[in-house]
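Sequence design from tokenized structure. All designs in this work follow the same two-part layout: the structure record, then the generated sequence. An example of the structure record is given first.
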């Protein structure tokens, strides 16, 4: 497993270095009227990466019910943490309560 992560990190670093070299070559070779546009590219890339990351996190949060094993594991972890902490609002923090509400709605239909 560690070897696969190492290969992926090396691959990402190589891609980053290639993009950096291409970017620097463009900045050096570009005419003066285009240089300001090229200086904005890293900021645009960083903002785009942040938006993409937030979108992926949101999609993964929405689709967690598509994987029943992950949902059950998460529900067990939340229940265990609630038992350990004895939080006054523990009932409201459980996923089981949400699942029970959905079951009641299905029964009514």
């Amino acid at each position: 497993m560690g070897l696969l992560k190492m290969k992926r990190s090396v691959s990402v670093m190589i891609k980053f270095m290639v993009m950096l070299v291409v970017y620097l070559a463009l900045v050096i070779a570009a005419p003066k009227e285009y240089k300001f546009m090229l200086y904005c590219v890293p900021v645009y890339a960083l903002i785009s990466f942040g938006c993409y990351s937030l979108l992926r996190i949101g999609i993964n949060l929405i689709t967690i019910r598509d994987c029943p094993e992950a949902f059950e594991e998460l529900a067990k972890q939340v229940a265990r943490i609630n038992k350990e902490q004895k939080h006054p609002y523990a009932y409201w923090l459980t996923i089981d309560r949400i699942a029970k509400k959905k079951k009641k709605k299905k029964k009514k239909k």
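The chain has a mean pLDDT of 79. We note this feature because it recurs in several other targets discussed in the main text.
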